[in-house]
Amino acid sequence: MFGVMAEAAAHGAHHVEGWVTGLFAALLVAMVLTLAFEEKIHAKKSMITGAFAVITLFLGAAFGLLPFGEVTLANGEHVALPVYIPAIDWGVIAIILGSSLFVDATSKSGLFTYIAIKLTKASKGDPWLLLMYYGLMTVVFSAVLNNVTAMIIVGSLTGVSLRKLGRENLLLGFLITEGLLTNIGGLLTLISSVPNIIVGQAAKISFMEFFVTASPFVVVATAVTLWMGAKRFGVKRLETSEEKREALKQVQGFDETDGIESEGFFWFSVAALGLFIVTLATTSILPFIQDLGMGYVAMAFGLTALLRFKSRIDEFLRAIDWDLLFFFAFLFVVIHVMEHAQVLGLIGSALEQVIALGDVGGTAVLLTAAAVFSSVTDNIPLAAMLAKALSNLGTSPDSPLWWSVVFGANLGGNITPIGSASTVVAFTIIHKNELDLSFMGFVKVAAPFALVQLILATAYVLAHAHLTAP
Description:
Order of helices and strands: HHHHEEHHHHHHHHHHHHHHHHHH
Strand content: under 5%
Strand order of the largest sheet: 1-2
Distance between the termini: 26 Å
């Protein structure tokens, strides 16, 4: 992972003075802290990681840490590339770029709005049913699209639906519950969240294997979170016949076809979305496709979906989250330098101590630590560093430690409103609706949910490891 150099491990094994490793470790900590306070310093993620990439590359060259010269590819071919090019995991970049293009294009069909309004009608205006349906939609959208897109779509539709039903008093509870569910839905598939992609690539977990392993936990955690949300925010079933009739009359005025401009493109998007999911699930066994990888699949589907807008493609290119893509590219470069500076070796030594605690202790400690750190800073660098460290230790693909990183990095986003991009979006939507909720107010409300989810996750990871052990 994080490059195509077959001899990376050998280069990373050279002797480095302790004070040099300490200097680079301090730079890594500084980068993580800067990312945690990006809003305070008014800097984008890509600018922060880009600055640290420039600094660490220069110092890496100055201290003679970096492997300059020809690069050996996996097939044995030698090519001349700048040292920072093979440091980037281009497969991850392609998955994010292709998936973003695909979602942006297919969303123009009105498919996602159609699904949301259909569910609102299916609830017949009953608040409890609406919470259940919107909660399930949040999980599915988070799994199939991404957490941020899911929260934006569901959050905006929730406000419209509850206002039309005269239930604005429930909006805060709905938005908080949906925000928490985005990070649970983000566990469902390999492409649902970036930590999944990073850890999945490092541990060589296939799309289908990831889904089969994660889905039982997602089902249970979703049910528990919805039950807790309904109890905590007082969302109850309609009781009298008059209440039910009035609510039904209100939802019948909703028109799910409002956002559909072309019926043909709508059905094309339905078919394309289904085929996209199936192809990703079977990438590892499809002839030729298995060699090209999931990045190729994502890019192919993204470009296919854009054919309808071929004369307006510049609109979609402007809408791409370039900050996120450059953030990843620069992050991979920083991590690559850290490997050669033996900083990842230090992290690996700490992980060895965790592993020495045994499956139960090691899994619980790593999952909890990943969650706590993810709650106060970006979970992507954390997942990337832990995945690289586990890879360097030769951790078995079926080790529960991989899943500890996956579950911890995702669920840690439910502890604070800055723990994940989707909870940031949820917090933003809450404030846009002029609802009163402070940072610590969010933590107090979300903490019981996060605690239960983390306990369930630890028990599930351990139980799964025990059941699948040879």
